[in-house]
Amino acid sequence: MACTDDVLIVGRGIAGAMLTEVLRSRGLRVHVFDVPRPGAASRVAAGVVNPVVLRRDVPSWRAAELLPLAARTYTAFGERHGLRVWHPTELVKLFPTPKEAEQWRRAMDDTATAPFIDQRAQPEVEAAPIAAPHGHGTVVRSAWLDVPALLDAQRAELLRDGALTEVEVAQVREEADAVHIHARSAPLMIWCNGAFGDVAGLVPVKGEGLTVRIPGLRLTRMVHRGVFLLPTPALGPEVYRVGATFKWDEVWAGATEEGRRWLLEKVARITDRLVEPLDQWAGVRPAAKDRRPLLGRITARQAVLNGLGSRGVLLAPWCAQHLAVHLFDGLALDPEVDVARG
Ligand SMILES: Cc1cc2nc3c(=O)[nH]c(=O)nc-3n(C[C@H](O)[C@H](O)[C@H](O)COP(=O)(O)OP(=O)(O)OC[C@H]3O[C@@H](n4cnc5c(N)ncnc54)[C@H](O)[C@@H]3O)c2cc1C
């Protein structure tokens, strides 16, 4: 019997959303199944795209390759939908110690890191009520993605095209020539179910964040000291998103008082202004043991796109492209991201 589709996708966070874009642009008939489960990561992600590992001041994995692709992909998505979802912005790292200031100066001389950072003046930050006794450095090529806006725009399009079913997938039936989910069938299905996935090497890591109002801070760019403070004027004047915690146990417990206290303590190290919490959010990152994405086939007719960890926004466009050329053009998977690496 003929299949209803070419590919079935389960899960539509940023991984499933980007894979859907890539496969549909190839002219494939894609049908997506997704329900918003508590703990899903993309809906709570601040959307920060930072190409530098701020603990060590080195580029994140393949940042030089991934960042331009992410910028192109999300900008094009926005243009197609008449939206602005990709927002380039500077990220100002506040140095907590003289040692970190020195580490930054050394990183500026490193050819791999230099394209991403500098130590320009930041009059806005210098004038703000912010504690930076050891100075600051700027990540010049950072950005943030409005993840909910992207997901909502794609949802509307897929529903219009009859390409999305918002139900829980409890069962998948794999036969010799097709995979069946509810009433749909295809020669291939791809799991994009994030931390809910059952993939060898996947480690769920909980993250919590806050939305806060800080009257008088008046920042238009991101700052970072232990946590990000991301100005979010769309949510109201002087409103910021703060994130995030990292926790490896009790990952499905949702937002906690402990997480809220930890985040507020971090903000208090950035500014002594009054901080008014407005909202708290929690999700579970689909991290991999070795911090690399998990891509590839797991059975004859099932594949995965997972393991995006804490950098899903930066990684998703590249992973979606890479998996597509592997599955449909027969190119070998990069061994670093091959799910079969165990
Ligand atoms: C607090 C927090 C802050 C973060 N901040 C950032 C950030 O600033 N920048 C950044 O790049 N990354 C950030 N991350 C990480 C980022 O959220 C993840 O890398 C990314 O969202 C993972 O996307 P995903 O699509 O793999 O998983 P998810 O977003 O979890 O998507 C999986 C989807 O599959 C659905 N699903 C699962 N099982 C089924 C089923 N059986 N049937 C139907 N549907 C199913 C889920 O409901 C969900 O919709 C943050 C994470 C957290 C928790």
Bound molecules: flavin-adenine dinucleotide
Q: Give helix % range.
A: 25-40%
Computed over alpha carbons, the radius of gyration is: 21 Å
Ranges where pLDDT stays below 50 over 5 or more residues in a row are: none
Number of strands: 22
What CATH architecture label of the largest domain applies?
3-Layer(bba) Sandwich
Main CATH class of the largest domain:
Alpha Beta
Q: What structural class results from the helix and strand content?
A: alpha+beta
Mind telling me the CATH superfamily name of the largest domain? FAD/NAD(P)-binding domain
State the oligomer: single chain
Order of helices and strands: EHEEEEHEEHEHEEHEEEEEEEEEHEEEH
Largest sheet: 8 strands, mixed
Structurally, how many domains make up the residues? Answer: 2
Distance between the termini: 35 Å
Strand content: 25-35%
Strand order of the largest sheet: 8-9-7-17-18-19-16-20
Describe the protein.
The chain is of the alpha+beta class and about 350 residues long. The chain has two domains: about 5-45 and about 145-200 and about 290-340, FAD/NAD(P)-binding domain; about 90-145 and about 205-290, D-Amino Acid Oxidase, Chain A, domain 2, CATH 3.30.9. The protein has helices at about 15-25, 65-80, 100-110, 125, 145-160, 255-270, 310-330, and strands at about 5-10, 30-35, 50, 50-55, 60, 85-90, 90-95, 115-120, 135-140, 145, 165, 175, 180, 185, 190, 200-215, 220-225, 225-230, 240-245, 275-290, 295, 300-305. It has an eight-stranded mixed sheet, with helices on both faces. Strand 18 (about 225-230) and strand 19 form a beta hairpin. Helix 1 (about 15-25) runs parallel beside helix 7 (about 310-330). The longest helix is centred in the N-terminal third of the chain and has 19 residues, at about 65-80. It starts with 6 loop residues before the first strand and ends in a 13-residue tail after the last helix. The model has no long low-confidence stretch (mean pLDDT about 95).
